[in-house]
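Narrative summary of target 7.
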Amino acid sequence: MKTDIHIALARESLVYYLQNKKPLPMPDEHPLLQLKAACFVTLYQNGQLRGCIGTLEPTKNSLWEEIRDNAISSGLRDPRFNSVTEAELDSLVYSVDVLGESEVVTAIDSLDPQQYGVIVRKGYRTGVLLPRLEGVTTVEEQLAIALQKAGIGFEETYEISRFKVERHEET
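Modeled conformation, tokenized:
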């Protein structure tokens, strides 16, 4: 079975960084060098979240660079977890979500946690939740988690945006 190029890059990026203490060098050619998009890289271990870091807007010159840097950050800089060690590399499962453009919504009936990710904002506080997450089946659950992550009270006034993702998962 052929490995998805998004997953292969995320895995190679974290492995290379842990083994060489520097980012994977950019190749001269790669299909993802031609694309520019935001993405999240999520790591799982034994079916449990092990790290997740991403961007809401493209911050690099290519999707290749976004995936590389977010994979490294997911493994080493997610404040919820200790850094991944070399001994753990073989046990990690990767997911890469490439984000479409976000759009502000004015009514929660235009949200769907199976189809759209959600961003909540109030001032500098921002909470994000990707779509199609296990155990999140209603808009209310999705919003509650995003608001909690942002430190925004449900009764406060806040902006809601939604976005679609192209999910790449290891099988």
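The helical segments are 5-20, 63-76, 139-150.
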